[in-house]
Amino acid sequence: MTKAVRVHQVGGPEALVYEAVDVPAPGQGEVRIKQHAVGLNFIDVYYRTGLYKAPTMPFVVGNEAAGEVAAVGPGVTDFHPGDRVAYYVNLGAYATERNAPADKLVKLPDHITYEQGAVLMLKGLTVWYLLHKTFKVEQGHRVLIHAAAGGIGLLACQWAKALGANVIGTVGSKAKADLALANGCDHVILYKDEDFVARVKQISRNELCDVVYDGVGKTTFPGSLSCLRPRGLFVSFGNASGPVPPFALTELNNHGSLFATRPKLNDYVATRTELLEGADTLFAAVINGKLHVPINHAYALKDAAKAQTDLEGRLTTGAAILKP
């Protein structure tokens, strides 16, 4: 019997219900996947709490996973039973088996594990588009990465450093600072003990940053704007502390003709070509050693409530997975 973690009514971690579900035969253009690892992400919390609205109730949580093709539906020619695959699909990932659209799957290279694949499809592709598409990080750029010891943060620090950037990260503890430094950060700011804006100004000798990558949201805004040089880019891609409040566009003018964007992964992998470009670039970076995938926590799928509680409590570092 297939098991999944579903939400029947939005709320706290107790809203996550581990239960048996029926999974039909894969339909037109679908693939049935026996899942080996599922990624844990803050977006899962956003859906559970209702910050992001699920299209139906109840719904299965989760957006990225990796596993083995168990069956294919009509019209599927690129995948076959036994293929190793990974995916990013809105909802449905917290399950032992599930059906997914074939055009959202990518094949895992031999040197990429299921565990790595499960955390690369959302977190890894997010870092890919942030550093290569939203703002093209190049040699000599100075970047600020909030939550530098998180799942996205550690990958972003490594990749930005590999691209030649000077990397500044914010973290919440000395242990997380050490982790960020070991993963590409040139300078780490303990935001609980230090004014991160003042430290960025000190570190940069008042030259500030070309881009700020902010997945934290409410508590780091508007300080992030004050860390940017004139015509710098503020990239708000997450809401770990709550959404960025509405603000007047004149704030961008006041800080030096800044640019600001609120991107999401779906818009950068909207076509099959874009998805494969991102996945190929990402997997190559892992295989050639530019990116190490730090999976520091693993939970049983049935313990999803504990996993999300730890994530919200800032008790995790790097990536975390659920094991079906």
TrEMBL record:
The keyword NADP applies. Keywords: NADP, Oxidoreductase. Residues 11-322 form the Enoyl reductase (ER) domain. The keyword DNA damage does not apply. It comes from the Bacteria. It holds the Pfam family ADH_N. GO terms for cellular component: cytosol. One of its GO terms (molecular function) is quinone reductase (NADPH) activity. This is Alcohol dehydrogenase, zinc-binding protein.
